[in-house]
Amino acid sequence: MRLLVTGGAGFIGSNFVHQTVRERPDVRVTVLDALTYAGDRTSLAPVADAITLVEGSITDAPLVDRLVGESDLVVHFAAESHNDNSLNDPSPFVQTNVVGTFTLLEAVRKHGTRFHHISTDEVYGDLELDDPAKFTASTPYNPSSPYSSTKAGSDLLVRAWARSFGVQATISNCSNNYGPYQHIEKFIPRQITNLIDGVRPKLYGAGLNVRDWIHVEDHNAAVWSIIDKGRPGETYLIGADGEKNNLEVVRTLLEIFGRDAADFDHVTDRPGHDLRYAIDASTLRDELGWTPRYTDFRDGLEATVAWYRENEAWWRPAKAATEAKYAAVGQ
Ligand code: NAD
Ligand code: DAU
After folding, report:
1. What's the whole-model pTM score?
2. What is the dihedral of CA 265, 249, 222, 75, to 10 degrees?
């Protein structure tokens, strides 16, 4: 199988490429990645000899048309992915997430290529803290930020291309991932690298917002289940029942680092900050037989801390600039 992975030099995409090379020797992988600030060639270094990396944008229609024409399957991870950045400058989010997805859809339509679209639970908006409900595939779309609204727009394009043009597409909406190779602008690696540097973790607002954490390996195994067994045109929600509020996550990290439980700072909250995400993944479990392997969050977090300790050369170059950006807005 000839597989095109967009955004394969980013966090989830690079883990997906590693997993694919490790477990599926019959798959020939090409990565298309613009190598933005969030993409890193060295994230693919362990598999560099087994794959082809093309540096380019998913908005480049002739390039996309050529690469899609040479592929049997496209798995589309490429995106601008950080909510805080989307509040500062939404423009690249519209370009990459909406126009880039449109460009890919036109190419898969022309070439009849199978397409899997990677999306987020944030398209559903947020839930109250005391609401027993979880997101399901029939929850109405209600995105809050420029990031999540552009992801919602991209999902709707995929649905329309599947229905109107018969594109063989599936969509997955996953909750918050953690694990190796995640950019240090994101919550967990930011706090891990702060703690390695002896800096106190930074909690937005009161720290009571809830995220539904899943290990990146479990997300990517679910994506392969959908590719192998999912029904074209369907949307699958991916989550591992990992709800935690941000304060709990910071306290667990402080414990792992042997620091005092009160050793963190509250900083300026994110405007429009979604309260709670929670995924009902029963379709994925019941219909496709997927189950998560990383069921102990603390174990997964310890392994992630160990990875950031062992791979300082990977994240250190981005640390000062990332923190300077946060400091400028009181975070
Ligand atoms: P990331 O920011 O770590 O990686 C994004 C990658 O896309 C980078 O390698 C970047 O260089 C590349 N890219 C950006 N613009 C591009 C363009 N125009 N053309 C080609 N490549 C481009 O993101 P991530 O956290 O790995 O997220 C990957 C996907 O998963 C995104 O679609 C995101 O919406 C979705 N998602 C993320 C999470 C999460 O918790 N991180 C959860 C659910 C869904
Ligand atoms: O739910 C899936 C989404 O998860 C993905 O679609 C996004 O691509 C991904 O970035 C993530 O979005 P969040 O906004 O939830 O993730 P982030 O890591 O930015 O923040 C997680 C929570 O931690 C959120 O409530 C904000 C808070 N936070 C974040 C940072 C960076 C802090 O309290 N302090 C921080 O320093």
Report:
1. 0.99
2. 10
Atom of ligand 1 nearest to the CA of 82: 2
Task: Give the pLDDT of residue 231.
Answer: 95
Contact predicate 38/183, CB 8 Å: yes
The residues, any chain, with a CB within 8 Å of residue 59's CB and separated by 6 or more, are 95, 96, 99, 100, 103
Q: Under 8 Å CB-to-CB from 206, ≥6 apart: which residues?
A: 247, 266
**Residue 150, ligand 2, Cβ within 6 A:** no
Distance 1 CA to ligand 2 centre (A): 34
Q: Tell me if 124 CB under 6 Å of ligand 2.
A: no
Tens-place pLDDT, residues 95-136 = 999 999 999 999 999 999 999 999 999 999 999 999 999 999
Q: Which of 176, 188, 273, 322 to mutate to test the pocket of ligand 2 (most atoms within 8 A of CB)?
A: 176
**Beta-strand pair 114-120/243-245:** unpaired
Determine whether the shortest distance from the Cβ of 277 to ligand 2 is under 6 A.
yes
User: Cα 152–155–158 angle (5° rounding)?
Assistant: 155
Helix axes 101-111, 146-165, angle to 10 degrees: 20
Query: Interior CA angle at 94 toward 134 and 29, to 5°?
Result: 80
CA of 148 relative to ligand 1 center, distance in Å: 12
| Closest ligand to residue 276's CA | 2
